């Protein structure tokens, strides 16, 4: 059922430890340096193939400080960013062509059918309950026009295990329990202090995401592993620093990005769906 244009009241606040994690302001730099650039450039690569021609109206839900909103606006799209962290919104609002405001993915203030595309490139990471994730996806469905596109990012179930083996942190006995627990029920719980790998989060099985889309009234039509196996091949920064090698890496990853047997190898997964026309 469609709702009034006003935002739904009563959305739960962002958990304290999640807010504290993002208020450190490290996410923007993570995606612009080192191996994090692989996630950024692969997200660009996939989205530029999925998005309608500019100027599309894009709602960047949970868009952080605007790492993606920045290039989307530069591509000619009309971008509005919503994020629950005030620091992120303040930074994003300074980007050319981007409007930004504080908001919650589960209760968007945007009117029904008011945008061409809704991106959720972060909110599903921190919604531990399936009901909340479906609610966020249903809100995305509500605000896109009939036939509009919804793309959501999720973290893969064994990403912490793969990453910690790659870096050697798995051999730290104090760090190992939350890593192994996340592989069991999908819930990453921080251990506190400098040894914590991440904040409270939910890690998906790739096959579970389309069902959440469907329950939200969306028709899923594609999944794309972002980093493939490349992020687990040691420090790939040298590859990414070299434009010629970087292009080859991106081309190689396109070949396997939607192979079902390989989706879970990536650290992050994009799932695309649409609202029925």
From TrEMBL:
Swiss-Prot/TrEMBL keywords:
Methyltransferase, Transferase
Q: Which SUPFAM superfamilies match?
A: S-adenosyl-L-methionine-dependent methyltransferases
- Which Pfam families would you find in this protein's record? Methyltransf_25
Question: Could you mention a single GO BP entry for this protein?
Answer: methylation
Against InterPro entries, the record matches this protein to: Methyltransf_25, SAM-dependent_MTases_sf
Q: Name one GO molecular function term.
A: methyltransferase activity
- The residue ranges of the Methyltransferase domain are 58-148
Which Gene3D superfamilies does the record match to this protein? Vaccinia Virus protein VP39 (3.40.50.150)
CDD domains, per this entry? Answer: AdoMet_MTases
* PANTHER family tied to this protein: METHYLTRANSFERASE (PTHR43464)
Protein name as catalogued = SAM-dependent methyltransferase
